[in-house]
Known about the structure:
The protein is α/β, with parallel strands linked by helices. It folds into two domains: about 5-145, P-loop containing nucleotide triphosphate hydrolases (Rossmann fold, 3-Layer(aba) Sandwich); about 150-340, Zinc Finger, Delta Prime, domain 3. It is built from 16 helices and six strands. The chain has a six-stranded parallel β-sheet with strand order 1-6-2-5-4-3, with helices on both faces.
Amino acid sequence: xxxxxxxxxxxxxxxxxxxxxxxxxxxxxxxxxxxxxxxxxxxxxxxxxxxxxxxxxxxxxxxxxxxxxxxxxxxxxxxxxxxxxxxxxxxxxxxxxxxxxxxxxxxxxxxxxxxxxxxxxxxxxxxxxxxxxxxxxxxxxxxxxxxxxxxxxxxxxxxxxxxxxxxxxxxxxxxxxxxxxxxxxxxxxxxxxxxxxxxxxxxxxxxxxxxxxxxxxxxxxxxxxxxxxxxxxxxxxxxxxxxxxxxxxxxxxxxxxxxxxxxxxxxxxxxxxxxxxxxxxxxxxxxxxxxxxxxxxxxxxxxxxxxxxxxxxxxxxxxxxxxxxxxxxxxxxxxxxxxx
Length: 340
């Protein structure tokens, strides 16, 4: 079989982050995926690693591709010799706008020996068998930035905290993600903020996380879950509107509430089996604090209310994805259907 028709897989961008070395620089790095934070971070690291190889300021170019731009002018620049005696770094953003991507194949087959070409494409690639992605994958130049979820995101948060000289336990890392959300740029922003408050005490406790995170907005998703768990419809509606007014994404709100209802449902079953809270929380990969919080959401401990809440969340998600309805209208209907 022709190797170009094989379905090669892209490498994980996370496998690259800790293994970049000036002695093992590739001629091409093609980054794609939904996690632009991860792509930005690895590009920064790559710039730092190759910096000693670049002897002229003119040998670093950042190009933002316009719609339907042809690739020939980019390839001409890539094949051009550096101004200095070292290497040249080219960072090409928005590769998805290139109209003639197949023309890139010839460069992948015969890349410049002096240029380090970094290409960035937002979003997923639906067919890795297509040109030029097939050969990029075969040559191990293709790296995907998938969104981290669950334990992978927790490990990332702990690693990021360690780099900032902050002690963050697995349980408190879960709590941090539950309060702040899964956006890595927001998580990093909060970790940097925590440094100013910790002083000599470098251990990040749940109390500190909750206290400082609540300062970022009048309400957070935890406050919404508390109000719903107590059956306080008016308060829940007020909090939803506040979250939307402060830029919170309705998709994220629905996602976090879906998780809330799911954990409540699981906690009922685990409670019936008399599983200790610590073990139960570990089994479903949430913090003990969050598990107990869900157990105490008494309004949803009845099966019929859980079912109605799950149905309301499904309908809200469907409405958000398939209609142009206003976010506040969807949010208000969601709260009403969950509570009545």
